[in-house]
């Protein structure tokens, strides 16, 4: 089976230690987590893990089974890139002087649809949200001028199909 | 006599379970919350869960709880094992034989880390167990305090659930949840780590049993359509085969399985964890599958047309090479844990749910059958196995004793009624192959993890979990020495466990592999052993050694007849091998008879 990108979405209780338990499932099978994001979800008091892996569908299905088995996990899903709407965010910290010295930087800002988050005497910060390759392109464009700091978030994603978490929770309470 | 003195001091009159329950009820239905310490609350939680026996080892971070145990010793017996690992295996033995939750307790740091092997064993063998560990006070967490270790982090991969309590007020809810999770659905071990401040601090104690956790579905719903499809497949099958596992015992589905096989006439084989769920003597019981299992069920797995897997998980020691395992068969998988479906073997029809319920719903849908021709094929294979293997194991003509004839002597002496607790290795495979059982929950062994050192402490727990039953621990000379210190528990509490060490002066199973696959290079498998009889006598346990056939049955009869602990060392052939054998990674069809 061929390897491909999968986004694993995990709805869970917000408990200390669950991240360790979930990451251990990947560790046990020697699978690298490409990116990980944990946030609140659309349901009150329910957390959502968004985990990106590059592996076979068979492995992904087994991992999702093991994740779902954890007591504090409400439900876990996996999806291919085609089945999700996904984005990443990145921050670029750049010397302020470059804004005046290098006119090309202004073009990059405009063309990349990025935002200036803050400007100080010494540096300014650009925020960019988009697909991985868009962020990579912006990074490549800015790199020759010098990037003081760069950080990119994990993938966040919503699925095209519905995720019936509320119903699952309602059934569980019954 | 020292022994008598100890007896008088230790043995206390047993309190009837009903009395305990009544008393518990009156305490736990009290409306007004009691203002008590966290440590006392822990004891009340245990009592409310029906616990009357725990295994453990005290230490600094759990001392407040031990202080309460001292006050409650009339209702809650604590057995001091000689090592925390012994506490976990004893709790496992207790749980496996009784179906109740085993409880083990330890202090922080090394006390807690010594539980890890038992937790891993209970996790892989789905044994309900709750472990309670003390932890350094909340304000010292993360400071590398004395005997601090991150046991929640360490135990995460080997527990069904774990939790760290840092506030006294959390105790009742978390312990209730711990017991619910440990015993519900597919059972497993739970560890609750409790900081010392939470043991000292007071709380308003009220106990409510946990009956659900919103994010956790212990038993998936049965799909009636899958049942119908399964029935159709079973009714059309010409050569169906059942392989059952421990799920049948955990789900108390023994009678349902027996009724099902008796109606359908389907030959039924077992994994070692499932052994004893159906009596050995049952005509439809066709024996053991797996690496050292019987010839018939192994080979015929690759000839059956429908394979019904009931409460088993297709462990690699059962399947051999998956690429060649039952490829011709349609597979119906009865399973409580959705993560097991299609994990190793693809299920054509997954039957999720409790096997007790699934089997009873399926029973009226299946047709009566006998499958006589198909059974003949098992009989033919049995004859081959008898002539090439079993005859030599049970009725040897050579001078040296075989492990098989020792097991047979135990069968005879106990009338097939004993609980057999085994360790890991050759003696374990021989015991699983030749022990005969009439009653469920009688074969207690470390199946999935293969934990040497399991048997002696597990036998202690098994005897205490089933005091009316004969408990015989069968152990190799290697594994025995891994937890030999638990003889101290047997002595102190005069637990009438019968211990049989099958001594071949080798780590026999590893030696067998070295002989077969490493050109007889016996790297570190030869053991120079101590005088085991003297060691047992040092603990004031009656001890004998047998090295000749003429003494075997009479000594085992004497051992079984004794109502005290008894140690028996049997000197067996040093270089016997266990056959049949499916070499690691080979197909079940390629099972070797010699």
From TrEMBL, chain A:
UniProt entry tagged with the keyword Protein biosynthesis: no
Q: Which UniProt keywords apply?
A: Amino-acid biosynthesis, Branched-chain amino acid biosynthesis, Transferase
A Gene Ontology biological process in which this protein takes part is: isoleucine biosynthetic process
Query: What enzyme category does the UniProt record give?
Result: transferase
How is this protein annotated for GO cellular component?
Answer: cytosol
The record's PROSITE patterns line, in alphabetical order, gives: ACT
Give the E.C. number(s).
Answer: 2.2.1.6
**Which pathway features in its UniProt record?**
Amino-acid biosynthesis; L-valine biosynthesis; L-valine from pyruvate: step 1/4; Amino-acid biosynthesis; L-isoleucine biosynthesis; L-isoleucine from 2-oxobutanoate: step 1/4
Q: Where does the record place the ACT domain?
A: 7-87
Q: A single GO molecular function, which one?
A: acetolactate synthase regulator activity
The chain's coiled-coil residues are none
Tell me which SUPFAM superfamilies the record gives.
ACT-like
Annotated catalysed reactions: 2 pyruvate + H(+) = (2S)-2-acetolactate + CO2
- Name the family: Belongs to the acetolactate synthase small subunit family.
Quaternary arrangement and interactors, per the entry? Dimer of large and small chains.
- Please describe what this protein does: Catalyzes the conversion of 2 pyruvate molecules into acetolactate in the first common step of the biosynthetic pathway of the branched-amino acids such as leucine, isoleucine, and valine.
Its protein name is Acetolactate synthase small subunit
Organism, as annotated: Croceitalea dokdonensis DOKDO 023
């Amino acid at each position: 089976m061929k390897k491909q990108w999968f986004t694993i979405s995990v709805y869970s209780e917000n408990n200390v230690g669950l991240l360790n338990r979930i990451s251990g499932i990947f560790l046990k099978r020697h699978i690298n987590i490409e990116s990980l994001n944990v946030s609140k979800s659309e349901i009150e008091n329910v957390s959502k893990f968004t985990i990106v892996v590059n592996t076979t569908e068979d492995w992904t299905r087994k991992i999702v089974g093991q994740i779902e088995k954890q007591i504090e996990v409400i439900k876990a899903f996996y999806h291919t890139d085609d089945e999700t709407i996904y984005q990443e965010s990145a921050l670029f910290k750049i010397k302020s002087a470059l804004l005046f010295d290098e006119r090309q930087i202004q073009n990059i800002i405009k063309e990349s649809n990025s935002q200036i988050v803050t400007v100080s005497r010494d540096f300014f910060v650009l925020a960019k949200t988009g697909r991985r390759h868009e962020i990579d392109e912006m990074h490549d464009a800015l790199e020759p001028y010098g990037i003081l700091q760069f950080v990119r978030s994990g993938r966040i994603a919503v699925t095209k199909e519905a995720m019936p978490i509320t119903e699952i929770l309602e059934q569980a309470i019954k | 006599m020292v022994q008598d003195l100890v007896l008088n001091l230790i043995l206390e009159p047993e309190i009837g379970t009903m009395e305990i329950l009544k008393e518990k009820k009156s305490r736990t239905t009290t409306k007004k919350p009691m203002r008590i310490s966290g440590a006392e609350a822990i004891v009340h939680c245990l009592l409310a869960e029906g616990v009357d026996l725990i295994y453990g080892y005290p230490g600094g971070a759990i001392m407040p709880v031990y202080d309460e145990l001292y006050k409650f010793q009339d209702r809650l017996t604590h057995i001091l094992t000689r090592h925390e690992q012994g506490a976990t295996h004893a709790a496992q033995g207790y749980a496996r034989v009784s179906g109740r939750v085993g409880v083990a307790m330890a202090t922080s740091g090394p006390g807690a880390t010594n539980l890890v092997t038992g937790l891993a064993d209970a996790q892989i063998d789905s044994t309900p167990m709750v472990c309670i560990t003390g932890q350094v006070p909340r304000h010292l967490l993360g400071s590398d305090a004395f005997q601090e270790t991150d046991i929640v982090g360490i135990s995460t991969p080997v527990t069904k659930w774990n939790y760290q309590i840092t506030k006294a007020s959390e105790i009742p809810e978390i312990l209730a949840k711990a017991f619910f999770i440990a015993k519900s659905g597919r059972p497993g071990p739970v560890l609750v780590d409790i900081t010392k401040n939470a043991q000292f601090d007071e709380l308003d104690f009220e106990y409510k049993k946990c009956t659900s956790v919103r994010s956790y579905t212990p038993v998936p719903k049965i799909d009636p359509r899958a049942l119908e499809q399964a029935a159709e497949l079973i009714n059309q099958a010409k050569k169906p085969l059942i392989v059952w596992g421990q799920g049948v015992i955990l789900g108390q589905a023994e009678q349902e399985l027996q009724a099902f096989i008796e109606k359908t006439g389907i030959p039924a084989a077992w994994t070692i964890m499932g052994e004893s769920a159906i009596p050995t003597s049952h005509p439809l019981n066709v024996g053991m599958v797996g690496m050292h299992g019987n010839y018939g069920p192994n080979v015929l797995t690759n000839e059956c047309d429908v394979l019904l897997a009931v409460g088993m998980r297709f462990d690699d020691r059962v399947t051999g090479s998956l690429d060649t395992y039952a490829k011709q068969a349609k597979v119906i998988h009865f399973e409580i844990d959705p993560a097991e479906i299609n994990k190793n073997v693809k299920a054509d029809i997954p039957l999720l749910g409790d096997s007790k319920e699934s089997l009873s719903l399926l029973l009226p849908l299946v047709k009566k059958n006998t499958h006589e021709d198909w059974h003949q094929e098992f009989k033919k294979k049995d004859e081959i196995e008898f002539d090439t293997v079993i005859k030599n194991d049970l009725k040897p003509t050579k001078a040296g004793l075989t492990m098989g004839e020792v097991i047979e002597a135990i069968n005879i002496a106990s009338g097939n009624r004993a609980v057999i607790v085994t360790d890991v290795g050759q003696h374990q495979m021989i015991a699983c192959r030749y022990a005969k059982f009439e009653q469920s929950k009688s074969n207690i062994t470390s199946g999935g993890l293969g934990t040497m050192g399991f048997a002696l402490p597990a036998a202690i727990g098994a005897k205490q979990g089933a005091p009316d039953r004969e408990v015989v621990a069968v152990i190799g000379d290697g594994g025995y020495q891994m937890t030999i210190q638990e003889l101290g528990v047997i002595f102190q509490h005069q637990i009438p466990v019968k211990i049989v060490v099958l001594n071949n002066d080798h780590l026999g199973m590893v030696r067998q592999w070295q002989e077969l696959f490493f050109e007889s290079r016996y790297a570190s498998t030869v053991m120079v052993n101590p005088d085991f009889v003297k060691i047992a006598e040092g603990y004031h346990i009656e001890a004998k050694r047998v090295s000749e056939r003429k003494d075997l049955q009479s000594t085992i009869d004497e051992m079984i007849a004794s109502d005290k602990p008894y140690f028996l060392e049997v000197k067996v052939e040093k270089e016997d091998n266990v056959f049949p054998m499916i070499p690691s990674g080979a197909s079940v069809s390629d099972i070797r008879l010699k």
